[in-house]
Predict the 3D structure of the following.
Amino acid sequence: MKYKIALYKSEEGYSVSCPGLPGCWSQEATEEEALENIQDAIKEYLEAVDLLIQDAEVREVEVTV
């Protein structure tokens, strides 16, 4: 699965967020570390969502862009 991310460089290093997953972000000193961390953050975010919806009837919809 692929997610769009936004990578920002600053004096302190790199910050990265996933706009499609509000509140999912990370930061590190190097671009490589920031990209690795956002992958972990996305996985943890999705695991948390699964726990939140475990008692709900879950469906999927298709969206054409």
Notes: The longest strand covers residues 6-10.
